Amino acid sequence: MSILHLVVTFIHSLFKTRRQLVLENLALRQQVALLRQSVKRPRATPADKLFWILFSRYVDGWRNTLHALHPDTIVRWHRYGFRQYWRWKSRGPKPGRPAIDTTLRRLIRDMQSTHIGWGAPRIHGELLKLGIEVSQATVSKYMPRTKKPPSQTWRTFLENHADCIAGIDSFTLPTATFRILYVFIVLSHDRRQVVHFNATEHPTAQWTAQQLVDAFPFDSAPRYLLRDRDAIYAEKVQRRIRSLGIDEVITAARSPWQNPYVERIIGSIPRDCLDHVIVLNERHLRRILREYFTYYHTSRTHLSLNKDPPESRAVESVVSGNIVALPRVGGLHHRYTRIAA
To answer: Based on the domain organization, do 215 and 294 belong to the same domain?
Structure first.
């Protein structure tokens, strides 16, 4: 730019109004910011395009302040924006059937993934029974397509076999006179119920075998029995297990996670009960455990049972009365229920 052009520009600016100078300064600043963001060629963002479209519409002489872009570019942007605006104004309803609710789409996918062999007709019939009016073609449209045939989940497989599996384990407890008591637990995997327990100071293989007979009288024995490699499960215990028609499953060495349900309750018993009392003798221990297992089966909610006790509790109505706390296990725990006033 020559010196003469600079002088002419300066003299011309003396006769401009303050509004013109402010607008020209704004346009120059915007172009400088645009050039700073570019390497070789100015790249206008949507915000830059909108700025110049509005600037060219409402400011006279806007071409004289434009240096980073060609004026025809601004005109092209304006015409493109004009076409897009009227395309948006003239749009009609979306072709095809209206989309169904997101909750219903999720329900259709859940039904398909949960149940093996359920196709569109089966799911459509289930939805009709739930009072949901939707066509079978719509149900088929929102069902995900799978390349491999449907299969049950591992969770479903294990739950279907939980009623024929039981686990056994034991733990020790010191008494007030520093004797060690041996507590034997038999747990059913179906509803996490303690089907049998006993305690003794001198555990033997013969005593342990007798506990299995007491735990599974008549034809109540499960199909499989999980146990660890404790030396107390000697040949006498193994013969008794086979005589009951049970297949024993022995966990790997130092792998308590392979018998998780029994290990979990063995952790819960001290944490919820025995860590808070001093046991006097075998009789005292049996009484405490009997009270705790009554609470465990009828009142204590379990995460693995959808927050329901092993012996299911009914849901009480909010209008059935006031909430009261009934002490359990000597007051260590409470059963909350509603009683009419």
So the answer is: yes
